[in-house]
Write a structure and sequence with these properties.
Oligomer: single chain
Distance between the termini: 11 Å
Bound molecules: adenosine-5'-diphosphate
Radius of gyration: 21 Å
Number of strands: 14
Mean pLDDT: 94
Strand content: 15-25%
């Protein structure tokens, strides 16, 4: 069965075409930096390796270009769109409506749209991806895999906010959690690698969106994103943790409208607000040239990660492994180094040489004497999604 997995994210679209259950990647591709003049398009199939820098304004444009590559007579991987049996979509917010992978119909799309209010950067591009895929691959089954599903097991003390109880019981205001597919995938890899019966793991997903999950024996027990994907770590354009009094001050004293505050905190804050760029590669390059704002933003970013590591180690009463994953976690030795710096008291010791090595495999980057394993594990949300789609359709 050929399953096309689409991850239509905030600033990128990634796809993989997989032959399942063989877990064989037929081809893959991505569009990064959507919205920029120098968006990057990649397509890979066997020894065909395309990389182009092209202006791509919208997700629709990006996905159409990728679909043209898929069916391209020479470079493509399929003869016609009917060759694809199912499209598995990563959907960020499923609220309490979707605890499981689900076949998409009109009602499901309405629900995904409903949760756009809670995930304004994600559910809209996810839904757009679904609607474009329905047109491009009309005979394929369309399936949604929800990021929120991994957190249904979290204890209520970590899911509930300290506001009056009725907001939890009647209005469903609680921690939903995000990046669940990624945290599940990398933590399962780590558990296998550790080879222990029991395990306490902190999974650190650092992409444009960033989150951390505390995982005991494969089950999530705490998580840094919350009701919407805005809490916790400093992200590409999102502030992460912020005192809610700032919001009232912005509205009451500085005259910002609610919509302006939403835009400010979701789209103009985080690394973008601190440095003018949300792309860590640019920020690191400027920091190296001596840009003080970029240097400080990187320090702040790593410091926030460090605080969550401490919190989760305390919550779990121990720590066997840290996992770094996603664009920044897998590629930025600088962020990993700063986040693990001076953490010996928790048994975390980074090997600076191993930290600089770059591979696409799971790798251990702690010193031999470190009590905690520090692992870089490439996330593979696409494979995880394909597995879940196959399971549903079988
Ligand atoms: P998302 O899927 O949330 O859109 P990704 O997981 O693709 O995001 O991660 C994007 C982030 O990874 C960007 O901030 C980008 O700068 C960063 N990144 C990618 N490659 C590198 C690299 N070699 N060094 C530092 N940061 C990198």
């Amino acid at each position: 069965m050929k399953i096309l997995v689409l991850n239509s994210g905030s600033s990128s679209i990634k796809f993989k075409l997989l032959q399942m259950p063989l877990e064989k990647i037929i081809c893959s591709g991505m569009v990064e930096r959507i919205g920029y003049e120098d968006a990057i398009l990649r397509f890979k199939k066997d020894d065909i390796n395309v990389q182009e820098t092209v202006p791509i304004k919208t997700h629709r444009e990006g996905l159409s270009i990728l679909a043209n590559y898929l069916t391209h007579p020479q470079k493509g991987a399929i003869k016609n769109p009917q060759d694809i049996h199912a499209v598995g979509h990563r959907v960020v917010h499923g609220g309490d409506s979707f605890a499981e992978t689900t076949l998409i119909n009109g009602d499901v799309k309405n629900e995904i749209n409903y949760y756009s209010a809670l995930a304004p950067l994600h559910n809209p591009p996810n839904l757009e991806g679904i609607e474009i895929a329905e047109k491009l691959f009309p005979t394929a089954k369309q399936v949604a895999v929800f990021d929120t599903a991994f957190y249904q097991t979290m204890p209520i003390k970590a899911r509930k906010y300290a506001i009056p109880n009725t907001f939890y019981t009647e209005d469903n205001i609680k921690v939903y959690g995000f990046h669940g597919t990624s945290h599940k995938y990398v933590s399962e890899k780590a558990i296998k690698y550790l080879g222990k019966e029991t395990s306490k793991i902190i999974s650190i997903h650092l992409g444009n969106g960033c989150s951390m999950t505390a995982i005991v024996n494969g089950t999530s027990v705490d998580h840094s994103l919350g009701f919407a994907p805005s809490n916790g770590l400093i992200m590409g354009s999102r502030s992460g943790d912020i005192d809610h009094s700032v919001i009232f001050y912005l509205a009451e004293s500085l005259g910002y409208s609610l919509n302006e505050i939403k835009q400010l905190l979701n789209k103009k804050s985080g690394m973008l607000g601190l440095t003018g760029s949300s792309d860590l590669r640019d920020i690191q390059a400027k920091a190296e040239e001596g840009d003080k704002n970029c240097q400080l933003a990187i320090d702040m970013n790593a410091y926030r990660i460090k605080k969550y590591i401490g919190g989760y180690a305390a919550a779990m009463n121990g720590l066997d492994a840290l996992i770094f994953t996603a664009g920044i976690g897998e590629n930025s030795s600088l962020i990993r180094r700063l986040a693990c710096l001076d953490m010996d008291y928790l048994g975390i010791q980074l090997d600076l040489v191993k930290n600089e090595k770059q591979t696409n495999e799971l790798r251990e980057i702690n010193t031999d004497s470190s009590q905690v394993k520090i692992l870089v594990i490439p996330t593979n949300e696409e494979l995880e999604i394909a597995k879940q789609v196959l399971e549903l359709l079988s």
